[in-house]
Here is the input.
Amino acid sequence: MTDAMTDSMSDKKPSSHKRWLIFALALPIIVLCLLIVRAEIHIGQSKVWTFDVGGYDPRDLLRGHYLRFNIQFDWQSEANSCQGDNDCCLCLTDNGDSPPKVYETSCPVAKTQCDGFMRSEFRRELNRYYVAETDAKRAETILLAAQAKNDAKITLAINQAGTPQIVDLLIAGRTLESHLESTEQPEDK
Amino acid sequence: MRLVKKLNEWHQQGLIDNATVSNIVAYEQGASKPIALWAAGGIGALTIIIGLVSVVAANWAQTPDEVKLGVDLLIAVLIAFALFKVCTRQAQHEQFLWLREVLVITYYGFVLASMALIGQTYQLGGSIAKLLAVWTIVCLPLVLLGRGRILAALWVTGSALTWTFGLEEFYRFLTQSLGINKQWVEPAIVSLYLLAPVVFILLSRIPWLLRHRPLMADHISRWSWLAIVVLGFVFQFLWYERIYDPMIPAVVVICSIAIGLLLWWIPTLYATYSPQSHLAMRGVLALVLILGVSGSWHSENRYELVGAITNLIYLCVLAWAALKIGAGGLFNLATAIIGIRILFVYFEIFGSMLETGLGLITGGALTLLFVWLWIKKSGSLANKINDQQREINSSGAI
Here is the structure.
């Protein structure tokens, strides 16, 4: 075992060893910082769109510490024109205070002719909203009640490349977090 | 404890004197301490990782996002700084090597937990494949700072998961983004799933890894071979199902070419191993390929008996390979499974009580015969294993 533990860097120059060591140790921190910066830039430079939300199944809404939902797009299905599943985008038409009108078309068309667009491949990833363990049950109850009144919405920040990022889950126009802050949490304690 | 008991037995029988007992016990205690220390360190670091992941999963709400992310980055910097200090010490005592290993494992897990925390904070809905791919690539230089077997096992597990999830994402990329026909992509992806152990064997034979991280290379290789052995065992079940898929011939061709090349390269890849070990490796690998190909080459009927017999042949070859490489434990395990497998054949093949009863009687008799042969031959087998082990040790293999 001792042989195996001999320092591999011992045959290298000390400066080269240190450079390699610093690179190996700093790389994860740099990447973590880049992930944070990328997420911040995404939200800062994107247009925010609001969509209606529906649950998959009320009995199966809460999975671990995230709420599962399904975005209810306001489809203009007669306008769908993208064949197959290659390079398709959702074309978003601004509809004032209401959720945008949506149809699927090829991405080059969507980029030039729509108010906004989202790449279709990201649709399957937009189905979960993380909540704190201590708030999970109350969040589920709030979302269930909101769905019954068609009052739940999700806001997405969609950048110029058509990549979406979830910003907030809105219940009756307020964020889920503000609902949780304003309510008691006896059952969670 | 077991060793002390054995030593006392030998002492009572007058085989060794008191001084020899004391010397052996003192030597073993000295040698076993670091192993216990390293194992405990690895388990401790692993526990911290699981705890960190659990805390992240709780996604505690009371703490503002900026504080959560700030503290997370601060902890990462502190671990990195501690690791830097330990790695740059001139005196490389055992305890510093141990500390380095523990810190590398902790940092390795902490990076994954941090990525998950960022994902939760910003509600990033990205796939787990991307998360694992970034983690594995970013942490590769970090992992190469470590040495031990627990880190090697963790890295193999993490990389195997990355490979598995990554292939799914790669399939989507090829079919959806590049628009390549699924008919071409599917056999390639299925083959890459099956050939994962081969990829890891090739990784474990990289000269730099062999020269500078022999323990890690050895463990990556062992895990890969274990996966191949398990795959060979699982292939018996192909005979238990009606199998038909148009992609199978293409998968068979791709896998056969890859395994054929590996069979050819084994003496080069394992240059320090004895010719006996090469023969054992080639025998097992070739048989696993044959079992996979033959098992998937039928479509209409189920042939349970063929599956059971091929499995027994496979276990016998495994026992032979164990003899060839001088692995007594593996030989005993393979022979024990053969006995149990013979009994199971009768449960699987026959249906009625009478048939099952007769089958069990015959199976039991066969098992007893097998055990009797084993006892009769065990002396000469033990000598053979010792001879093989001596030969391997003298040639410097393993």
Observations:
- The first strand of chain A starts at residue 47 and ends at 54.
